[in-house]
Design goal:
The protein is mainly α and 98 residues long. It has one domain. It is 51% helix and 0% strand. The chain has four helices and no strands. The protein is elongated, with a radius of gyration of 21 Å. The chain starts with a helix and ends with a helix.
Length: 98
């Protein structure tokens, strides 16, 4: 049963990301109240977390160009601050659910 659930979750992941990659709209979420399972069958909810999926499968780096005041650059450089790390942490704090 665990393997079947993992395979269903992976299929859902692939279906969702494939549609998004192709620019298609995702269908609206639907309840399971109208679904009648066949005899000896179960209804199982499969969850999907887009942020977790992207972290796992799309974590290659991309180059970004940004501008900051010169004085801020000098102060940060003196302190040995890793600009990429600070930007990643700030962006994650903005997009992660509170």
């Amino acid at each position: 049963m665990d393997q079947a659930y993992r395979m269903a979750a992976e299929a859902l992941d692939l279906a969702i990301t494939s549609r998004l990659t192709e620019g298609q709209q995702l269908p609206p979420a639907a309840g399971f109240q109208g679904i009648k399972p066949e005899e000896n069958c179960l209804i199982v909810l499969i969850s999907f977390d887009m942020l977790t999926y992207k972290k796992k499968n799309r974590s290659h780096s991309v180059k970004k160009t940004l501008s900051i005041p010169q004085w801020l650059n000098e102060e940060a450089m003196e302190l040995g601050i890793n600009f990429s790390q600070v930007l990643q942490e700030a962006l994650l704090s903005k997009i992660q659910p509170k």
